Amino acid sequence: MASSVLLPPWSEIPREILGLVIDRLGSGAGPDHRTTRRFSAVWSKIFGLLPFAATKDYHHRGFQDVCRARQSALSADCARFRAVCRSWCSAMRQHMAPRLLPWIIISNGSFLTPSDSASANSRCRLPTVPEKARCIGSTDDWLALDCTDTEDMHTYFMHNPFSDMTVPLPELTEAIGNVSKLFQVRKVLMRSTPLDIVALLTNNHNYPIILVRPGKGVWLPEPKTAPFIYIIDIAFVSDKLYGITQAEDLVSLTIDFDNDGIPKISIIERLIKHPPRSYHFNVWRDDNDDNGDNFETVGDYGFEYSIEEQTEEEYQKDCDLDVLRHETGDDMILECTTYLKDNEVPYETISLIWHLVESRGKLLMVKRLLQWPLDMNTMKYTRKVEVFEACASKDAWAPVSHGLCGQALFISRLFSKSISAYGDLESDTIQFVDTGEMFNIKSQTMSPSPRDIHHRQSMWMFSPGLMV
Questions:
Q1: Coil, helix or strand at residue 325
Q2: What's the Rg (C-alpha) of the chain?
Q3: Listed residue (333, 334, 328) closest to 176, CA to CA
Q4: Residue 8 — φ and ψ, nearest 5°?
Q5: Backbone angles phi and psi of 196, in degrees to 5
Q6: What phi and psi values does residue 21 have, to the nearest 5 degrees?
Q7: CB neighbours (10 Å) of residue 296?
Q8: Residue 2: is it exposed, middle or buried by C-beta count within 10 angstroms (0-12/13-18/19+)?
Q9: What's the pTM?
Q10: What tens digit of pLDDT does each residue of 248-294 get?
Q11: C-alpha distance from residue 80 to each of 17, 41, 58, 141, 463 (Å)
Q12: Under 8 Å between Cβ of 283 and 274
């Protein structure tokens, strides 16, 4: 009788071998196709020995199937790899974590990975997002969806593509279900979960900020009231909501609940006041401030504000839109972008963009100068990046130039996030969703721009494994 061979337990397979297998999960191509096929074959043999190998539909499970096709760490293969034993689960976590990067979600429901170009051929649509839905915001692994019916009525939801879980926001639908074509939701943020506070930033001066608590109710400020009409970006730090204005005021908004559990803003505090200079727009002023507003340059950039010349037809169209703005209140709020003109390149547009980001419990303001070349075949690129930390005790923004304490910032108009950098993810860097550029704050260097997608229609979405 042939002697039986005792195979070592799965947990004793060396980490180096496991790492090679993990590298090839769900991958059919790579720099070395022979190596790819070899380790794909190795994984196939290992998979065939596992107790759940008889399940033939493991790679046909909604979003997991798309993830597998896009080499996501949440693919079915990876999930089953982790399920073998604790040792394999630990190996997967340590080996894959450095390779996890957020996805780029386009407002039409399609998505890219950071390594993709902006080519339409490289885009796939998230299979769990309804056809008539637009993505209007994100927080971590949740998307905010705006669905319209045949009568252009809007219905709002929070949706998680990873779990295929959806939370309706009927209170929000009742408040802003019927809006004009000028209406925009500029940001949607969850404080913790979609069943807690959901904060919205809009372009309507009657409700520039909205707080929703599903199942409880919605809070709207008094129409056209400060400081809400001046806020251009928001961020949560713990339970408190913060906002910045285009003049660079920083305001804290304390959230409480009434007896019915409906949220409300109970305390408003200006932590940083805008510097004393002239502005080309209305700013949040105290009663003793000078009310004069003059058109001057922006800070120390030395550029003039861009005022485009119009034809008579364009002027009349703007007049009609202006009537609609005043009738509805839509498009009456400054956004986080202003357009400038450089006399050295007067035919090219420069935009100055502000972002408010929470990082390690602190508030950072990221200012970015974006150049829009006249040549349509040339992609836009970032000319300058500045980062400031809020110092409320000094009533000032302090420049940050020596690093981000090991963090990496992912910046987009609709959602920005700071995560701990490890492995292949460089620390002290800022990655921009629209151009794909990466700015190193220590070396003050910028990577080339690999893509060009619209900054108003793109956002980051983070898989659950990146919530660190």
A1: helix
A2: 25
A3: 328
A4: -65, 155
A5: -95, -140
A6: -65, -45
A7: 12
A8: exposed
A9: 0.77
A10: 999 999 999 999 999 999 999 999 999 888 787 888 986 545 444 43
A11: 17, 16, 9, 21, 17
A12: yes
